[in-house]
Amino acid sequence: MSAVCSMFVVLLLLVSAATVEGKLKNYKFDIQLKNVSRLCHAKSIVTVNGQFPGPTIYAREGDTVLINVTNHLKYNMSIHWHGIRQLRTGWADGPAYITQCPVQTGQSYTYNFTITGQRGTLFWHAHILWLRATVYGPIVILPKVNVSYPFPKPHKEITVMLGEWWNADVEAVINEAMKSGGAPNVSDTHTINGKPGPLGTFTCPTKDTFVIPVQQGKTYLLRIINAALNDELFFDVARHKLKVVEVDAVYTKSFDTKSVVIAPGQTTNVLLQANQKPGRYFMAARTYMDAPVPVDNRTATAILQYMIAPNSSFSSNTIAMPQIPSPKDTSSATNFNNALRSLNSAQYPAKVPQTVDRTLFFTVGLAIDSCTTCINGSRISAAINNVSFVMPTIALLQAHFQNITGVFTTDFPDKPPTPFNYTGIPPKNLIASKGTRLTRLSYNSKVQLVLQDTSVLTADNHPIHLHGFNFFIVGSGFGNYDPIKDPKNFNLVDPPERNTVAVPTGGWSAIRFTADNPGVWFMHCHLEVHTTWGLKMAFVVENGNGPNQSILPPPNDLPKC
Ligand SMILES: *[C@@H]1O[C@H](CO)[C@@H](O)[C@H](O)[C@H]1NC(C)=O
Ligand SMILES: *[C@@H]1O[C@H](CO)[C@@H](O)[C@H](O)[C@H]1NC(C)=O
Ligand SMILES: *[C@@H]1O[C@H](CO)[C@@H](O)[C@H](O)[C@H]1NC(C)=O
Ligand SMILES: *[C@@H]1O[C@H](CO)[C@@H](O)[C@H](O)[C@H]1NC(C)=O
Ligand SMILES: *[C@@H]1O[C@H](CO)[C@@H](O)[C@H](O)[C@H]1NC(C)=O
Ligand SMILES: *[C@@H]1O[C@H](CO)[C@@H](O)[C@H](O)[C@H]1NC(C)=O
Ligand SMILES: *[C@@H]1O[C@H](CO)[C@@H](O)[C@H](O)[C@H]1NC(C)=O
Ligand SMILES: *[C@@H]1O[C@H](CO)[C@@H](O)[C@H](O)[C@H]1NC(C)=O
Ligand SMILES: *[C@@H]1O[C@H](CO)[C@@H](O)[C@H](O)[C@H]1NC(C)=O
Ligand SMILES: *[C@@H]1O[C@H](CO)[C@@H](O)[C@H](O)[C@H]1NC(C)=O
Ligand SMILES: *[C@@H]1O[C@H](CO)[C@@H](O)[C@H](O)[C@H]1NC(C)=O
Ligand SMILES: *[C@@H]1O[C@H](CO)[C@@H](O)[C@H](O)[C@H]1NC(C)=O
Ligand SMILES: [Cu+2]
């Protein structure tokens, strides 16, 4: 039953992929509650069209996508098309109170954007409160018609969405933490395509296992997406090597790996050759967390199942288990990230800024906020350059476009106001300042941004996601960034191009991008708990003087606050 069901789902996905044609893609998203049975008990969750995970958006490079989102919930809603460049169409980006006011109960808003110069795997998710815990789905951008992949054509393509599941209502989980001042409860399990699998502490019916049927000798493209709220993950398939070919919808030089490390907000496409003995093999996802913070360490599993003749059986009944790296295996994660290189071919060049117009140095880390009603009189918070971001009550993009003053300032510090040993003993006063402060960038300026983790409260890993741009990760390391020595080792030829960088625990990452997209663009930690605590800010990119270098006017149905 389980295998048949899953096979059916996989086939449906494949059929849709094959029939994508034309230039205009229309989708209807109804945000509604749905009772689902997961982890052996029923629970009402927020879904799109009653589906969990939500529907896949299929498009080709160059297509215009229209998604009419209608909110049938008591919650406000907004949806982010994570990794889509949104050239001049910030109105369709989605983060609530940054580029739009939320879609309120009973209202609709049609997101309208064109996919330019991107192909590969991305995903969409809610961008308000913690609703993305269940409101997420894949975005598959196929190459233009008659353009092939820069790797052998796979027999089939399968999306593998990694997620995190709470038995409790996620809003209750974060609200409880904000009241007490401590860290929120960790999730109850990880999931693969919404299902936890039979291992871990949950013994669930097999209908909760995702199964991928494969034919021996064929090659499969797995589009792996980390939609988890707070956990970076290792992903591994027993006895099968994975060949990485793309990350964050950018082709890479291909390389073989035993396991993939993937931070929340990242996507990774791998080729898997079904070249083992016919049988059943677990694929598994488990946390990578090398900092001393509470995490969900449960292993989510799915099954890779070889198709065999009817009535024949496998030589063994056991399902092979992968040797997934331990949760604190920093070197496996670092080696994987260091192996990533842009493809940088004639057709897909890596346009790395070779010079820099604007140099930014941002510390990212935890902090303390006073809170008289909290248990210890204080609350854990988080900040960038000692600024813990305060959410505005109208959208920043609207304030920028209409010249409304008093909503934000553009004096976000270019460097930490008080330098200290970022990865050593922190200063005594851990209270961060607060503000809705942004960084102004002139059109087309070349920006270098070093993201430095701090050891305030504890060093921790931070997957930093930038909206509106891809960036090149030109360098990274442990300890404090050295502005004299480290740039000498920057890769300015074929560094990985992404929209989310996993800044190492107790380390730094240097990114470069060209500010060629006017608008207001959010940058934040993709660990939802850190974002809630204030680890976020935004860039205002000015309009250029030329044609097609200004933000387009807002659509008529843009939600109002
Ligand atoms: C969903 O399931 C819960 C728990 O079983 C139940 O209390 C609730 O009435 C159900 N809601 C709907 C809309 O069916
Ligand atoms: C979006 O869907 C809603 C609800 O079905 C409908 O009322 C509205 O007209 C649709 N908007 C567009 C632009 O089609
Ligand atoms: C979508 O936006 C484009 C401009 O980017 C506009 O020309 C087009 O009319 C819009 N489509 C709809 C259905 O609103
Ligand atoms: C794709 O290739 C086929 C076969 O060569 C050709 O008939 C068709 O016109 C091409 N389509 C496009 C959009 O280039
Ligand atoms: C968080 O975990 C504690 C301890 O297990 C439990 O008592 C509490 O109810 C949980 N909170 C939520 C919102 O589920
Ligand atoms: C309060 O402080 C104690 C001692 O430092 C710590 O163990 C506990 O986790 C804190 N509780 C909260 C909710 O911050
Ligand atoms: C997972 O975490 C729990 C609670 O912190 C702990 O008891 C258990 O030993 C951990 N399991 C593994 C495999 O690390
Ligand atoms: C497979 O098994 C079923 C049920 O035992 C039987 O009816 C069928 O004839 C078998 N088919 C083959 C090809 O042996
Ligand atoms: C905002 O200010 C800019 C520059 O001064 C001006 O070009 C634009 O028309 C103003 N927009 C509005 C809506 O007032
Ligand atoms: C910063 O602190 C680390 C860890 O304690 C130490 O190894 C390093 O020498 C310190 N760096 C400076 C410049 O003081
Ligand atoms: C952060 O800002 C607060 C409030 O202005 C200040 O008290 C504190 O010293 C600052 N800390 C650092 C490390 O700059
Ligand atoms: C929904 O958003 C509107 C506009 O920002 C706000 O006034 C309202 O309080 C929000 N409703 C809820 C339930 O948060
Ligand atoms: Cu973080």
Write up this protein.
By secondary structure, the chain is mainly β. The protein folds into 3 domains: 5-142, Cupredoxins -  blue copper proteins (Immunoglobulin-like); 156-339, Cupredoxins -  blue copper proteins (Immunoglobulin-like), CATH 2.60.40.420; 358-549, Immunoglobulin-like, CATH 2.60.40.420. The chain is built from 5 helices and 32 strands. A 6-stranded mixed sheet has the order 10-9-12-17-14-15, with helices on one face. The longest helix has 18 residues, at 2-19. The chain is globular and about 70 Å long. Mean pLDDT is 93; it is low at 1-22. The structure holds 2-acetamido-2-deoxy-beta-D-glucopyranose (12 copies) and copper (II) ion (CU). One 2-acetamido-2-deoxy-beta-D-glucopyranose binds next to loops. One 2-acetamido-2-deoxy-beta-D-glucopyranose (NAG) binds at residues 35, 42, 44.
Features:
561 residues; 5 helices; 6-stranded mixed β-sheet; Immunoglobulin-like; binds copper (II) ion; mainly beta; 3 domains; binds 2-acetamido-2-deoxy-beta-D-glucopyranose; 9% helix; disordered N terminus
Low-pLDDT windows of residues: 1-22
Largest sheet: 6 strands, mixed
Tell me the quaternary state: single chain
Proportion in β-strands: 35-45%
Number of helical stretches of at least 4 residues: 5
Bound molecules: 2-acetamido-2-deoxy-beta-D-glucopyranose, copper (II) ion
CATH class of the largest domain: Mainly Beta
For the CA atoms, what is the radius of gyration?
Answer: 23 Å
Question: What order do the helices and strands come in, and which of them pair?
Answer:
Elements lengths: L1 H18 L4 E15 L2 E8 L8 E4 L3 E8 L7 E4 L25 E7 L5 E7 L9 E7 L13 E10 L4 H11 L8 E4 L18 E4 L4 E8 L6 E5 L4 E6 L2 E8 L1 E4 L4 E7 L6 E8 L12 E7 L23 H10 L18 E13 L7 E7 L2 E3 L6 H6 L31 E3 L2 E4 L4 E8 L8 E5 L4 E8 L18 E2 L1 E4 L3 E8 L4 E7 L2 H6 L2 E6 L20
Parallel strand pairs: 1-4, 3-8, 9-12, 11-19, 20-25, 22-23, 24-32
Antiparallel strand pairs: 1-2, 4-6, 5-7, 7-8, 9-10, 12-17, 13-16, 13-18, 14-15, 14-17, 18-19, 20-21, 25-30, 26-29, 26-31, 27-28, 27-30, 31-32
